[in-house]
């Protein structure tokens, strides 16, 4: 066979198979990625959709109200059973009910069923009988569900305003006053002001506790519910799609903007979002200068001998060290070592309760900065190596010193590579959970690390993190089943936060890079 | 190919002119590979001196030795002396950045910085400092004019230098070098990547500069050497073979060897 023949024969076959294989694996990867995102998006976001409430009548005459969750075949293969979320933990002791489908005699969706989100005991599902002042003892008269529902909505709106007013008062008046008193216990004026403010809060709280709801489950149990423990109320069966969409938006917004409740099994994740983003930004601020300086030293200053090569290999290998090892290092060196020393020197008054000698925002950021240092060094070094020598020589030939050459020509040209390094670092750091558990992440840190108190950014505070929140919600609640949608929603959010952080860095790089056409001459 | 010129001492018809560079016994090696061997020659002040010779004979190496660019390369070893206006450039009291400002260099490949046209030309000026904005603007305009580029770029000084054509980039690099007012301009095949028209522009530029500057030109183009230079040195395998006024060298070379090269009988 001549060479030409061989080429003609083998070419199309190989290329075809190779191309199909490559395209196939790309498609498969994309499909898996898409499936993953779709799963967490559907399960996470679906949770906020106000599901309609079914009133189920069983063959034996029992009645039950709940939201259908899913259906499975019975273990013996005889028919199917359906899971309902029924709420009312205070009445029934549980919130779930498995019902065999055959035993369901009828299922309706009456418009007057309400779902109340409460601070304690979780959701209530049932009927609203009346809205009353607290101390009326007489049995509720003629029930007027429509009227009561209107009244409830009005009261909830009032309650919201009251809550806000109370929070503002606490934040802006009471806390600063209390701090002033701490520093200066004899300040009569401050003490009086504080007492007045506290009295106002007490009055407002009393006003909030004034109203009670009379509720009735579909099984007929009637009880009183203080209004101030009700967070939200809805009648999903009476809602149009538009209203449901509104409620969904509101639910998502509350998830994003509020703090967690009920041991993280309900409520929102705002402190965790904030903690994650803040920690990643601090980490970037710490890792960039160190990484860039190290890369400059290795590539531009150090004698390119065996030692430098060795250091370079070591740095590349550091990127492969398991992250938990960095956590252990951070705990030993930053928290106990440096933090403990800082406490001894500067925070002796508050010992034995540690200030910096325990996990916190600063130590977590530093640990992750260390973890991502190799990534930044390697990316920057690669960028530096790509800068042609004649650019450096051009600067020197104009009388630039080495330092001027590095800062004015090499550094600006290395910026895109540096930012690539930071992007990779952010991507790695934002998803890291294991080391954080050792050096500062908290299950619940209601105080976010930034506030109006000097020094505004509290590096010693513990913080919440979306990744850890996923873990905690999924495994540490008492009702994992109920928390599952939140796990998915939080996971989705983590992906989105990382995406946004990355896009920011990419935008930055593009913005910096496109000032001059970066096609090397 | 036997080269008798290598063993014989070089034929030097040295100009009776004030010298700018005085090179004596210069040998240079990259690691174990010698690139220059025992080079002795003088570069006259305010004239154009051309270095010619086959590829790899050490022309660029010699040029880079003149402004100490080899300092950067740790593998380079060097012997002999180079005097610039009587001063040994390797003497400890010589500030290398000042030397490099005085001895400007234009490289084989145009190497504008990734900045605007204006910033490229102002680069050296900003390093020195001490100029007001107005003064700097004036110098930039003058340098671009001297490099015959002003008319082409005066309306787009803020554009990226990398958006210019190769020929324009090379002239920009010359302008950038001229802006710091060097007394010597080293040109390493400045026209090798350029079209004939850009080449002519650069040659005109060289001619117009030679009254005020000492120019050293490396070129593979015999016509170019003949057209613009006053003196020509022929190098081969790191040694000086023949050095004479350009007219003499091209019309009446002393060595058959030189003649062969000039007439294209040796690659
Ligand atoms: N950085 C370097 N490291 C090692 N050897 C080098 C280096 N630069 C040049 N050389 C060698 O030194 C010799 C002279 O090179 P030089 O670049 O001075 O030649 P040249 O005359 O400029 O050639 P050309 O006309 O092709 O540009 C060549 O043999 C080359 O291989
Ligand atoms: Mg060369």
UniProtKB/TrEMBL annotation, chain A:
<keyword id="KW-0813">Transport</keyword>
<dbReference type="InterPro" id="IPR005672">
    <property type="entry name" value="Phosphate_PstA"/>
</dbReference>
<dbReference type="InterPro" id="IPR000515">
    <property type="entry name" value="MetI-like"/>
</dbReference>
<keyword id="KW-0812">Transmembrane</keyword>
<keyword id="KW-1133">Transmembrane helix</keyword>
<dbReference type="GO" id="GO:0005886">
    <property type="term" value="C:plasma membrane"/>
</dbReference>
<feature type="transmembrane region" description="Helical">
    <location>
        <begin position="20"/>
        <end position="42"/>
    </location>
</feature>
<protein>
    <recommendedName>
        <fullName>Phosphate transport system permease protein PstA</fullName>
    </recommendedName>
</protein>
<keyword id="KW-1003">Cell membrane</keyword>
<feature type="transmembrane region" description="Helical">
    <location>
        <begin position="409"/>
        <end position="430"/>
    </location>
</feature>
<dbReference type="GO" id="GO:0005315">
    <property type="term" value="F:phosphate transmembrane transporter activity"/>
</dbReference>
<dbReference type="Pfam" id="PF00528">
    <property type="entry name" value="BPD_transp_1"/>
</dbReference>
<dbReference type="GO" id="GO:0035435">
    <property type="term" value="P:phosphate ion transmembrane transport"/>
</dbReference>
<feature type="transmembrane region" description="Helical">
    <location>
        <begin position="269"/>
        <end position="298"/>
    </location>
</feature>
<comment type="similarity">
    <text>Belongs to the binding-protein-dependent transport system permease family. CysTW subfamily.</text>
</comment>
<dbReference type="InterPro" id="IPR035906">
    <property type="entry name" value="MetI-like_sf"/>
</dbReference>
<feature type="domain" description="ABC transmembrane type-1">
    <location>
        <begin position="273"/>
        <end position="505"/>
    </location>
</feature>
<feature type="transmembrane region" description="Helical">
    <location>
        <begin position="486"/>
        <end position="508"/>
    </location>
</feature>
<feature type="transmembrane region" description="Helical">
    <location>
        <begin position="318"/>
        <end position="339"/>
    </location>
</feature>
<feature type="transmembrane region" description="Helical">
    <location>
        <begin position="359"/>
        <end position="379"/>
    </location>
</feature>
<keyword id="KW-0472">Membrane</keyword>
TrEMBL record, chain B:
<keyword id="KW-0592">Phosphate transport</keyword>
<keyword id="KW-0997">Cell inner membrane</keyword>
<protein>
    <submittedName>
        <fullName>Phosphate ABC transporter ATP-binding protein, PhoT family (TC 3.A.1.7.1)</fullName>
    </submittedName>
</protein>
<keyword id="KW-0813">Transport</keyword>
<dbReference type="GO" id="GO:0016020">
    <property type="term" value="C:membrane"/>
</dbReference>
<dbReference type="InterPro" id="IPR017871">
    <property type="entry name" value="ABC_transporter-like_CS"/>
</dbReference>
<dbReference type="GO" id="GO:0005524">
    <property type="term" value="F:ATP binding"/>
</dbReference>
<dbReference type="Pfam" id="PF00005">
    <property type="entry name" value="ABC_tran"/>
</dbReference>
<keyword id="KW-0067">ATP-binding</keyword>
<feature type="domain" description="ABC transporter">
    <location>
        <begin position="21"/>
        <end position="262"/>
    </location>
</feature>
<dbReference type="GO" id="GO:0035435">
    <property type="term" value="P:phosphate ion transmembrane transport"/>
</dbReference>
<keyword id="KW-0547">Nucleotide-binding</keyword>
<dbReference type="InterPro" id="IPR003593">
    <property type="entry name" value="AAA+_ATPase"/>
</dbReference>
<keyword id="KW-1278">Translocase</keyword>
<dbReference type="GO" id="GO:0016887">
    <property type="term" value="F:ATP hydrolysis activity"/>
</dbReference>
<dbReference type="InterPro" id="IPR005670">
    <property type="entry name" value="PstB-like"/>
</dbReference>
<dbReference type="GO" id="GO:0005315">
    <property type="term" value="F:phosphate transmembrane transporter activity"/>
</dbReference>
<keyword id="KW-1003">Cell membrane</keyword>
<dbReference type="InterPro" id="IPR003439">
    <property type="entry name" value="ABC_transporter-like_ATP-bd"/>
</dbReference>
<dbReference type="InterPro" id="IPR027417">
    <property type="entry name" value="P-loop_NTPase"/>
</dbReference>
<keyword id="KW-0472">Membrane</keyword>
